[in-house]
Specification:
The structure is a single chain. By secondary structure, the protein is mostly helical. It contains 5 helices and 3 strands; from the N terminus they run H-H-H-E-H-E-E-H. The chain has a 3-stranded antiparallel beta sheet, with helices on one face. A hairpin with a 4-residue loop joins strand 2 and strand 3. It is globular. The two termini are 21 Å apart.
C-alpha cells in the first residue's frame, strides 16, 4: 500500500511539473491519474533489486525536483538574455546514454524539457546517445558534464 501511495505521489508530481500548474483541479487530476497508473502497474511496478532504499529515493526525488526548478530558473535567465540580443550559439549536443535505463531516459527527457533553453530532441539508439538542442551549445563538454553530474547525483537514485 505504501509503495502504491509513493508511486501515486511521484507520478502526480511529474504530471504537475509537465503541465506547470498547481491549481486545485490540476492537482486532483494528477492524483487520480497517478493512482490509476500506480494501481495499474501493481506488481509490474515493483522495484529493481538494485534500487536504493525508499528513504534515499524519496530524498533524491526531492533533490531532483529542486535541481530541476533551479535549472528552469537558470534556463529562463539564459533565454531572456538570448532574446535581448546576447550572442549565443544554438545547436545540438550529443550526450552519451551510458547505462541509463529506459525509465531514466524518459525522466531525463521530461525534466530536461522543463528549462526553456534546452530541449531533448532524440534518443539515437544506434549510436547510444541522447540528443538535446540548446540556445547556447558553444561548450558541449560542459553540457555533457552537467547532464552526467545530474544523472549520477539524482536520476540514478530515483529510477534504475
Amino acid at each position: 500500500m505504501t509503495g502504491t501511495l509513493i508511486r501515486t505521489a511521484w507520478l502526480a508530481a511529474i504530471y504537475l511539473l509537465v503541465i506547470s500548474s498547481v491549481e486545485a483541479e490540476d492537482v486532483a487530476v494528477a492524483v487520480v491519474l497517478g493512482l490509476a497508473v500506480a494501481v495499474g502497474l501493481g506488481r509490474h511496478g515493483a522495484s529493481h533489486p538494485d534500487t536504493p532504499p525508499l528513504r534515499q529515493r524519496v530524498l533524491a526525488a526531492a533533490g531532483l525536483v529542486l535541481s530541476t526548478a533551479a535549472e528552469v530558473v537558470r534556463g529562463t535567465w539564459r533565454t531572456m538574455r538570448f532574446c535581448l540580443g546576447e550572442p549565443g550559439r544554438p545547436g545540438f549536443v550529443e550526450i552519451p546514454r551510458g547505462d541509463r535505463s529506459a525509465g531514466r531516459v524518459a525522466l531525463w527527457g521530461v525534466l530536461t524539457g522543463e528549462a526553456p533553453d534546452e530541449y531533448p530532441v532524440d534518443v539515437d539508439e544506434e549510436r547510444d546517445v541522447l540528443v538535446v538542442h540548446l540556445l547556447d551549445a558553444s561548450d558541449p563538454d560542459a553540457v555533457r558534464a552537467r547532464h552526467a553530474r545530474t544523472d549520477e547525483r539524482w536520476y540514478r537514485r530515483v529510477v534504475r
